[in-house]
User: Fold these one by one.
Assistant:
Number 1:
Amino acid sequence: MVIQTDSEEALLGKSLSELTEWVQQQGQPAYRGKQLHQWLYQKGARSLTEVSVFPKRWRETLADQPLGRSTLHYRSIAPDSTRKYLLRLSDGLIVETVGMPTDKRLTVCVSSQVGCPMACDFCATGKGSFSRNLKAHEIVDQVLTVQEDFQQRVSNVVFMGMGEPLTNLDEVVAAVKSLNQDVGIGQRSLTVSTVGLPGRIRQLAQHGLQITFAVSLHASNQPLREQLIPSARHYPLDTLLEECREYLQLTGRRVSFEYILLAGVNDLPEHAAELAEHLRGFQTHVNLIPYNPIQEVDYQRPSQQRTQAFQSVLEQEHIAVSVRYSRGLEADAACGQLRSNN
Ligand code: SAH
């Protein structure tokens, strides 16, 4: 296996103007930047030797130029057609990506880190170790890989794979920009999900992106949230919600809240009422996620009846709410089930 350590050199993730600059540094005319851009982002080139519009002599000198593409380590397909990929990065680490086709859409769930440092109690990723942040091009690569495998354009990307996007803010923002400008996915079709870290939601808002933004709330009061999410100890619920309000003001985009439903823990009608109280007057949308089982803990998924009861309480309070029945459950590819093995 070739270990490529200098990932700074990867061409993937670079914008049209950066690629143009790069070809010019190589003594080539500017228009080759546009060709390179097209081959990287549209044609899925994995080596510059494939770029047949480039002069053969020049191409041959570029055989070792890293592009920043991963290699497929493992793929599984669930009965609902969800595909889970384990991708090998240039340093040998493995990252997980999920492709979810629906009628006309193809949604990719990307990882932003190898592992996750947040250690949420209900999440398989948090039970494993944290290795490192992903570079922007390693995030873009996941989307291109799924697009190539399905031979269908990716319509949506959700940053809901392994990792906490806001602990890797700069690379995540760079990846969002590249997915938007280079791959051609609309910003509103890109969703960043976070468990929330003090000050980071504001920092993201300052980038003024028009992405869809979701916060993993998961609890209706601070003690319960701390029990489920260790990092919440440093981030009072009120402060988190205040930053979310600021996010809306700065970007004009509403914030969605994800709320995992754990039977008997946070799924009672009184929890729903308490949640509604916090969200009163807040332009928002709540996404309920019935718990997907993981080995390490014995939480239970609530019955459909309980889920609906929770939903009704929110609806009565005029809060927009939907239930996300996760896809890919059979392939261990659903929310919270991602880990770096198969
Ligand atoms: N770190 C980010 C990105 C992960 S997104 C975040 O916390 O938002 C994945 C979503 O699935 C999050 O809302 C996460 O809390 C949720 N999740 C984690 N484990 C789960 C499980 N076992 N069942 C259902 N949802 C889970």
Number 2:
Amino acid sequence: MLSILFEKMKKKSKLRDYKINTPQYEFYKELHKNQTYNYVKTKLKQYSTNSNKKMTMNEVLSMMDKFIDPSDPDVSNENSIHAYQTAERIRKEQPLNLELQVCGIIHDLGKILLNFNEPAWSVVGDTFVVGCEFAKSIIYYDTMKENPDYYNYIYNTKYGVYTPNCGIEKLLLSFGHDEYLYRVLQNNKNHKLSHKYQKIIRYHSFYPWHTGNDYKYFEIPSDNDIKQDVLEFNKFDLYSKEDINFVLTNEIKLYYKNLLANFFPQESIW
Ligand code: FE
Ligand code: FE
């Protein structure tokens, strides 16, 4: 029994192992240099009216066949496979929780931004708060020193532009697929996914908060519930990457095609 547990721990520790002088390192250096408070504000303004294209969730899912996440040391197959793997892990453990399954299949669809000519550092990677001191738990924290905000006398203070206990919702996070998909869901009211699951999507890459336990001084009591939801989801998102023998069958494809058609009966504006 103990040896099985040990093997499991050994296996798990191999995920999210960020070494320096790797493609991930170079990627994060770019991300950390460019994601400033002003950059995020500009992007949020640009995408405040999502108006790139009208597409169904199923269409966007099929477009993920082309994307491989350059920030992720654990995934080298297309993002559509990652979506099915995550959702299938959820379906096995929680067959009745359809919303969580939907969350699993769509959580990374914000990566469609890559099709709208966004650079990868503006789409993928862990997120962090901009406009205040950078959290020490940010991966490759040293590269944050290349971000101009690191030297800004307001942004480099503990609370920066925010106030203590303002609530996680008030914080601006580095821009990427989480925030983008959250806004698509918020701006399109023609679907059945409830706010709880939209928030999981919004914060799923916010590792310095949900796993690093930083930014506690911005939290309000209800933020802890969101954090627990994100951590629960994260298990499926992260550990599904270990399912190396996963086979995408027609049954699986059809199941999610129908599920998405049920939750998103119409096209969304992206
Ligand atoms: Fe993601
Ligand atoms: Fe993911």
Number 3:
Amino acid sequence: MSEVKRDAFIDGRWVAGEARFAVTDPFDDAPIADVTDADEAMADTAVAAAERAFAGWSRRAAPERGTLLGALGARMLADERRLAELCTRENGKPIKESLAEVRYAASFLTWFAGEAGRVYGETIPASNPAQRLLVTREPVGPVAVITPWNFPYAMLTRKLGAALAAGCTVVAKPAEATPLGTLAIAELAQEVGVPAGVFNVVPTSRAREVGGHLLAAKAIRKISFTGSTEVGMLIMKNAAADLKRVSLELGGNAPFVVLSDADLDAAVAGALVAKFRNSGQTCVAANRFIVEEPVAEAFAGKLRAAVAELHVGRGSDPRTDVGPVIDDAAARKIAGLVADAVKRGARVVLGTPPDGASRLIHPVILDGITPEMALWRTEIFGPVIALRTAADEGAAIAQANDTEYGLVAYVYTRDGARQLRVAEALEAGMVGVNEGLVSTAQAPFGGIKHSGFGREGSRHGIDDYTNLKYIAQRIG
Ligand code: ADP
């Protein structure tokens, strides 16, 4: 295993700073690396490099850009074990999930390697026979990419893949808890020959100051952000000052609806994936389980039995299903949400309410959830299942839509017409029908309402990185 990269990556060079910040293992606080704490001046240098590189990169033949992206994806897969171990160390997630994340992350590079050559334009029949009307798609320019800590590789590559395929250059600011994964990808990008300045990384512990400075840079023409709704709103507000384009993938509050004719075993299997992936710390995590009354008891019973089997522990242990949450603040927040629900009458049907002192949180199932409880409106981001019953399909849909978020919704039912009817009624950018895992590089990932806008992955994922140019040509 080569040494972990721990400096800023600017214009094809590793740049060490005097100021450094510590990256630690969420399981036991063991130090992993001291990383260069990039300042505003370094962010400026990275933006200048991205701006310089843009001219050459955007003019390269698209299939050539695709070839480099494909090589980077393959390089990630060749190194998947090392990358997975690094992810488990800085993020804490179970090693089998880290491995899945590396493959998922690489799949975006492979996907956009193909899409690079498919940034098609169009010709439009003109009303004037002496005219020809053409539409082309041009890269928007240098892009600033801000990513969260929960999927350090995948949140990066689904932006990086689309941006580089379109011909944009990138300055990435990873989350302060997990900068090492992004630096590892930068190292591989350098190895496969991505030109200097095309992909730059500025790790920083001062997200608001240095991140804000980066986003405000004149040369940055687009911002792609994944993180909290609160920060997303701030970023959009600030971007208005320069009318930069913005894509926001923000928080969720996903309903998981189980109707009376559902295959309950399939629903439980889907629930485990939708709830416990990354120890509950995903924006697509099922946050509110809404179960039609006739099957509420049976579903809760099967769920209890399955959840009781989950192994909680250190991410590097191959048996582990649920690892530590990212930091102490997360542990306290989850404990607070459970305490609030119990105080307002929720019943604990499995587990013990967490005390907020340990980051290792054992799964808890609560039922009797009501809309007054804070966890009904708040992304729990931890291994806590909140169950509520609904009298019928209409009530279930109303409960599911009782949120300002709209990222994903899940529904379980065997009835084909009902599947589509409910999927159409659910207010979300994505719906899983008898499916607990919707994320895949081929499909458009993204939300509505307070979950943001823009789509990542799929043939649509590149749109946010291109401007349409219309050319009217007179030929006679
Ligand atoms: P999370 O709850 O996932 O930590 P955040 O929105 O706080 O969500 O963080 C997501 C990303 O946004 C991280 O990379 C973080 O450093 C960055 N970030 C947080 N605040 C700001 C800000 N004011 N400006 C720019 N980036 C920020």
Number 4:
Amino acid sequence: MVKAKGLEGVVATTSSVSSIIDDVLTYRGYNVDDLADHSSFEEVIYLLWYKSLPTLQQLTEFRNELIESASLPSGLAAMIKNLPNEKVHPMSVLTTCISILAMYDEEADEITEEANYRKAMRLQARLSSIVAAFARIREGKEPLAPKADLSFAANFLYMLNGEVPDEVSEKAFNKALVLHADHELNASTFTARVCVATLSDMYSGVTAALGALKGPLHGGANERVMKMLAEINEVDAVEPYLQKAFENKEKIMGFGHRVYKDGDPRAKHLREMSAQLAKVAGEDKWYNMSIAVEQIVRSEKGLLPNVDFYSASVYHSLEIQHDLFTPIFAVSRVSGWIAHILEQYENNRLIRPRAEYIGLKHQTYIPINERDQSEVVSV
Ligand code: ACO
């Protein structure tokens, strides 16, 4: 049996959705650098699901269908209003809401190709509506419906803030969505595939994936990056803060990667965007601190920034609340999860690895009344 802690280096499936080869990330064979520079997020979703880039007409129809699918069942919106919303994390709300959304979908348990594509559209559109609706409801505002003439990126920012974003913000957010859309067999995608490989439904697969994304070693890192930057608060404090973190053997959020050895190709786009947005906002403190953190972590630890590091200052500059950073990751990544779920159904086999047993052996069972009652076992 092959043993690999954390499944490092294990090839668990074949896939044609995305690849990381020699530190180059591609979606369906297209370099993510090209997609980030030229494509809309809707185009990327289409590419991931339908395996080729859309024509203009296909893209228009796809975009319209996404907008038409975005409204939430009234029962779900009412339920969000009743949540103890000052205390709960939006990732918990999102995970719960996706699970509930299944109850409003008559096709939830229908695992045919046609039903799966229809559900894909509803899930993609409604997940972002849930994130925006929760953010507004907890501020005492009413949720907003998307506008027919806006892009997916602009619509999300509009549904969040109630204002149509300027061109720079829309472009930056679109790019962030493109860069987060898919990433081979990352932890949440693997979780989604494990879930649906039991022939469970797409809503269950996405709900499971959300649970995995939430953790700080995965999608939860972007919120923690911002927390770290806020704690540091000024460029001069970067060095002492990091030295203390190194001494305490703490992990620096937004750095390191299981697969990339010479750096995450998405990070440079986000660094560039962070610089640009800082300039537009007239506040370069977060960008400057991020650069200082990168320099020190790189030289002292040899670690490079991953996708989460600069997305923190990008989202902060877009005036997005910090606890929405990971849900926004999901707004994008659900497109990749769905592509992988569809692929898993196409050629399914139950995913069931083995564990090497290291526990006690050959234990003799003693009936409860005959056991030594003085023994205190801590659990
Ligand atoms: N800060 C400090 N040290 C680190 C970091 C970090 N961010 N990342 C790795 N290391 C060190 C580890 O302490 C370990 O050192 P050791 O061998 O002396 O014990 C060594 O590098 C290997 O690290 P592992 O955690 O074993 O690497 P793994 O491949 O399992 O983990 C991970 C990859 C989870 C991304 C890790 O680098 C990490 O925890 N980074 C911080 C969290 C983060 O940014 N997560 C987002 C990843 S991207 C994404 O999921 C969207």
